[in-house]
Amino acid sequence: MDRVAAEVRKAVLSGALQPGRKFSIAELSAQLGVSHIPVREALSRLEAQGLIVLRPGRSAMVSPLDRDELRAIFRLRQQLEPDLAARSCAFLTDADFERAERLLHDYIDGSDDPDHRWTLHRDLHLVYLQPAATEWDIRILVQLWDASDRYTRIVFDPYGAGAEDSHKREMAHRGLFAAARSGSPAEMRRAVHEHLTDNEAACLSGITWSAPGTQGVNVLEDSV
Length: 224
What we know:
Elements (H helix, E strand, L loop, with lengths): L1 H13 L7 E3 H8 L3 H13 L3 E4 L3 E4 L4 H22 L5 H16 L4 H16 L5 H21 L7 H20 L2 H22 L18
């Protein structure tokens, strides 16, 4: 089930499975070489992340991109992340800053694998939040990040971005690092709030919002 979920999630986030695309669970099972049960369980997990909509019978659809959903995701992130970052400030260690520097370097200049680069990005943000986070905070954060990935990866694709966009992304994350280094909870809260606000605005303006598609069912092909 984990492999199936990972394969379908990768296809959705990469755009190989486009928003609004309908597909057959039976055909997906055949393409992945597994029975219907693990496929349906994997799709149920992805439905909880907001990526898939299970339909009556044995079919599913990739969740359409939705402005209201995007706004709701960022509203919840704004309620959680700036506060966690502010409360974590006092507990960040030299080892945390060294790890953040390595992750920032590898995120900006390192891996050519986009999936690995997004993992680095998530790990970088977690450095700033984890000291004050509870287990439930992390669970909720992961769910919100999973839901927002499909929007942010469209806009901040490392291969689609030009030099100017890449420079802006680097400066934004260096600003977060500097705010964390300042040791000021107020400064860190402000920096994370502004970072989320800018990302939400970029997604709202950078995504082509369209009606759901209804193309055929053989949607995985060579993509997963």
